[in-house]
Amino acid sequence: MTDRSYTTSFTVDQTPAQAFAAISNVRGWWSETIEGETSRVGEKFKYRYEDLHRCEIQVRELIPNRRVVWHVLDNYFSFTQDRSEWKGTDILFEIARKGEQTEVTFTHLGLVPDYECYDACSDGWHTYVSGSLRDLIATGAGRPNVGEAITESEQLLTR
């Protein structure tokens, strides 16, 4: 059986240490309104975007310059019928040196095409991870959500 969980990866010229620091700076690439601690194992943080999406995540694993694992404790989407989507899933960031570059692989274990939110969520992760997080690592400036719809899916859902 193959894992159909959403995954994406990118490479940057920066070091694994720079990638690890940027991933832990969740406000710098995902949302400036994150509440809670995001850089210590066991800590919990909350994400919210309007009334469309809110979730509570726990930091489960931090291996400096190699791996970050989050666990979704609770989740709510206003646009899905299935209220269990995302709950109990894990979000992984794996960091590896590839020659002169650093590769970051992001996987949302359990976010599969069968989910109602898959299209909107994969669009969101692509924008925030492959776009904003990559920019934060590469340039020092990400493009986090600051209260406005950024992704195409967010724009469609807020209309």
From TrEMBL:
InterPro entries: ASHA1/2-like_C, START-like_dom_sf. Transmembrane segments: none annotated. CDD domains: SRPBCC_CalC_Aha1-like. It holds the Pfam family AHSA1. Residues 23-136 form the Activator of Hsp90 ATPase homologue 1/2-like C-terminal domain. It comes from the Bacteria. Belongs to the AHA1 family. This is SRPBCC domain-containing protein. It comes from Labrys neptuniae.
